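Support case: user asked for a sample of complex input and structure output to validate their parser. Sending the pair below.
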Amino acid sequence: QLEHCCALHTAARGGLSSSSPQDVPAERPRAVFHTSESDPAKHTEQHEARLYNIPLEEVKAVFPHGLPYRFQQQIQTFNEARVMVRRPALELLAYLKGSSFAHPAVRYVIYGERGTGKTMTLCHVVHYCSRQGWLVLHIPDAHLWVKNCRELLQSSYNKDRLDQPLQASLWLKNFKTSNERFLQEIKTQKKYTWGKRESTEEGRPLGEVVEQGLARVRSASDAVGVLLREIKQQSQRGSFRLLVAVDGVNALWGQTSLRKEDKSPVSPEELTLVHNLRKMVRNDWSGGAIVTTLSQTGSLFKPSSAYTPHELLGKEGFDALDPFVPIPVANYSPREFESCYGYYLERKWLQHEKAHTEDGKAELQFLSGSNPRQLDRLAGPL
Amino acid sequence: RIMPVRWSRYNPSYLEPEVKKESYQKPLEELSEEEREQMELKAVRPIKAAPPTLSSSVFSDPMISKFTNMMMKSGNKVLARSLMSQTLEAIKRKQLEKYHKAPENEKETIECNPYVIFHQALKNCQPIIGLSNITRGGKTYQVPVPLTDNRKRFLAMKWLITECRENKHRRTMMPEKLSQELLLAFNNEGPVIKKKHVLHKMAEANRAYAHFRWW
């Protein structure tokens, strides 16, 4: 079937494919490697190695944060967001579709070498869940919470812990854009006092907690903690499904590069945000799923050749996340490479004359080693 | 140990390395007499080591390598090359965005290939005639003088790089500055083209001293 696809690429780009009847061209025939199915729920093995389109308004609503920077630049240049449907994502979607939500939440850990597409797989799953109407708790990069923090306040709730107002308020702002309707529907179940004069009564919508966190930046981390706790307790009732999507989960159990005022190192346990997030990632609640990604690129004090869960999470993290379903993500298969190359050609991203030849394509495949990130970096200047 | 820096210390019997793939893919029958002799010579004589700048990649371009070498500071070729590739990508992105927003009839006029833009911009920046200092009777005169191709290319590249390094805001990144300058030079606008025109005018003004040149 591989030769069949290759022949179609080079010969006829008229979108004629016998294997997918629903790709009948509407106005203008798109090539074989595109698919018009923009709902991730309907993606099957037929759609493997094809690119599907996400409308730009949906991108702004579902992904205020969380997409890799290079991909955001690509969306801006090409004026469209095309994500490739790959096997690890299809596997994850199948597991999510078949899981029963009366049982405790299953943890999925997406791991792989650098630049193989872990974050994009996570974004695919997040898109599916938001289309299905789940409440999506998407933390774009947990490493941003354990390094480069300018302001560390001592937490008013617990004397030992440290607050991070800037990161917490930024995350709350993005959370608000992605999950507007849930913030009106879910009500608090306890009274929370934020200071001498501010408090949130029982039964108020969660939107008020978020507003409180955004208005009073000093208590933003506590607002995040309250939000996570409420959502966790209420998802067990079954009125909504919860997806906890954490990118770079190995940051929660490693070391931080932050220091206290007396120059002693801060352990991740002492940060309120990390402490609350660890509670979310435990599987003592039901009614949803936890999908996480390991990441070496942002990690602290880990060698660059480490990519397996055991190396990146360490003993503490592995024991905390155990048992989990590991999902390996590999480099592009030959079919996926053809698909990506054809897409770049179609959008006129590969401008060099030699890039259109067979020699150029073979050279790109060899130099990038079929690694998605390397291919993107190589195709940039060409 | 003495390392050869500018002039090669190879024995004259050493031959240059052949990097192009096409020359090795030709079957024996198609070769002419000289090429057969050349092949037999290569089997016997030793061959020089290939310099690191020589590449068999289909995407390599000698002008781009020369420009990267001129941008390089203290031997940091990795940084210079990454800056060059980021510049080409920046040019491509700007042109593609313009292309997608333009109406149908203007789409053919917009050039999106960063290599074409680079070569055309360099060609537009090359001066035709230069000035050289000649001393006669104690006074130094600026005499208009023809330039060789290499000198023209060198001057164009040097002007572009100095313009980007000196006359821009301190915090702008090199790829951004360079891509802006290259696009302006491609359209025959910008400070580098102005500098070329100023040089031409000076040469025109000093026409009277042209007979001072003796070569």
